[in-house]
Amino acid sequence: MPAGMWALFVGSFRSRLTDVLGYDRPTAAEITKNAHVRYRTLIRKLPDFEKGDRFQMNIVSCAMLAAFVLNMPKRPDVDALTKYYAAAMMTGPMKWFCRRSGKAKFSEKDIRGMRKTAALNAADRNPYSWNMEFLPYPDGSGYEARFSKCGICTLMGELGLSDLVPAMCRLDYTMSEAGGADEFVRRYTLASGGPYCDCGYKKKGK
């Protein structure tokens, strides 16, 4: 997965350095070259994820973003990084993936997967994974995934980038919008000092 993720997104991450953050092309190329080296180093330190852990892609994308940030001549603020990360991640294939996932949202398979993820509690054994509760809404309008442990917070904290985690959190809204099946709602994030991260998915029109 890490090699595939790099191959799939590196072009977008490099282009957005110019389009969004304003770096010239030679600088963007140099940042990307150095980021690849750092990315491979970060990936090597991560433990193997358990079979059935659905969050491996999340920590890999975190490692990719962190590798780029750590090699930028100027550290971006949260607002700039939020725009950069959303533009870099929301490629054509990613939008297709979101639409495809949206069609299966709230299906029996989706609910079974959420319950299985909640039961796994993978972060008890892997600090770079997540622990999640699955909380269906009583009125049948959707459900909440409530996270008490977050692998992104762990990795970004180790790298001195905790203040930039909200730039990644905002992608939840973007992906939900692209999926088209739900309205994403949130009150708290661990990154902003909340008691947990709540990811609420309400059925459209409910």
The overall pLDDT average reads: 95
Sheet with the most strands: spatial strand order: 1-2-4-3
The beta-strand count equals 4
Residue ranges: pLDDT <50 for 5 or more in a row? none
Q: Helix/strand-derived class? A: alpha+beta
What shape does the CA trace take? globular
Main pleated-sheet profile: 4 strands, antiparallel
Rg (C-alpha, Å): 17 Å
- Helicity level: 40-55%
Would you list the SSEs in sequence order as H and E?
HHHHHHEEHHHEE
Instruction: Count up the helices.
Output: 9
Topology of this structure?
Layout: H1 2-19, H2 25-45, H3 56-69, H4 78-89, H5 92-104, H6 108-120, E1 131-136, E2 142-149, H7 151-158, H8 165-169, H9 171-179, E3 182-185, E4 197-203
Helix pairs in contact: 1-2, 1-3, 1-4, 2-3, 3-7, 5-9
Which features does this protein show?
206 residues; four-stranded antiparallel β-sheet; 4 strands; 12% strand
Structure description:
It is a single chain. By secondary structure, this protein is of the alpha+beta class. Helices cover 55% and strands 12% of the residues. The protein is built from nine helices and four strands, in the order H-H-H-H-H-H-E-E-H-H-H-E-E. The protein has a four-stranded antiparallel beta sheet with strand order 1-2-4-3. Strand 1 and strand 2 form a beta hairpin. Helix 1 (2-19) packs antiparallel against helix 2 (25-45) and helix 2 crosses helix 3 (56-69).
Summarize this structure briefly.
With 206 residues, the protein is an alpha+beta fold.
